[in-house]
Design brief:
- The protein is of the alpha/beta class.
- The chain has one domain (3-158): 3-Layer(aba) Sandwich (Rossmann fold), CATH 3.40.50.1220.
- The protein has 6 helices and 6 strands.
- It has helices at 15-20, 23-35, 54-61, 72-75, 97-100, 151-162, and strands at residues 8-13, 39-44, 69-71, 84-88, 119-124, 144-148.
- A 6-stranded parallel beta sheet has the order 3-2-1-4-5-6.
- The protein is globular and about 45 Å long.
């Protein structure tokens, strides 16, 4: 239902996409959404995954057009125009504590501002913390929904539901 009303979707890939090897399913979801007139971009954090550029390489492997990969500085000013931000296994790179808690271990770290999207859908296998080992209050925000699943299975389930 969320996708039916969406005009703009931002996918935020992270380690969960890599572990699930979901990049090809993400491409299929992107193609499906594009065919329905939905603009899909990818919000790329430079340290998402386990090494710099990790997400770029995986998405290139799945033939995602490079111009759809938006760096954090490009997407953040536009995040309030995003209807749905799909966070696929990213955790610390979307944690608003980096902006709000000066005592946090990630204080001052630049993040992707998914909390500013109309709706954030966070796909994770559990509520376990990310690499920094701290809770993420994004998960409990009023505009956030949690989808507990393997990343690839979740994307395939979304594709089936949209079809």
């Amino acid at each position: 239902m969320l996708i039916d009303g969406a005009r703009r979707v931002a996918i935020v890939p992270g380690y969960g996409m890599a572990v699930a090897q979901a990049q090809h399913a993400v491409r299929d979801l992107t193609n499906l959404l594009n065919s329905r007139g939905v603009d899909v971009d990818f919000a790329i954090h430079p340290v998402a995954g386990r090494m710099p550029g990790h997400m770029n390489v995986l998405l290139a492997e799945a033939n995602i057009p490079y111009d759809k990969l938006l760096e954090m500085d490009q997407i953040n000013p536009q995040m309030d125009t995003v209807d749905i931000a799909i966070v696929l296994g990213a955790n610390d790179v979307v944690n608003p504590v980096a902006r709000t808690d000066p005592k946090s271990p990630i204080a001052g770290m630049p993040i992707i501002d998914v909390d500013k999207a109309r709706t954030a859908v966070i796909i994770k296998r559990s509520l376990s913390p990310g690499f920094a080992g701290i809770p993420n209050p994004l998960f409990a925000l009023d505009n956030s929904l949690m989808l507990f699943s393997d990343g690839k299975k979740a994307i395939l389930d979304i594709i089936s539901a949209v079809k």
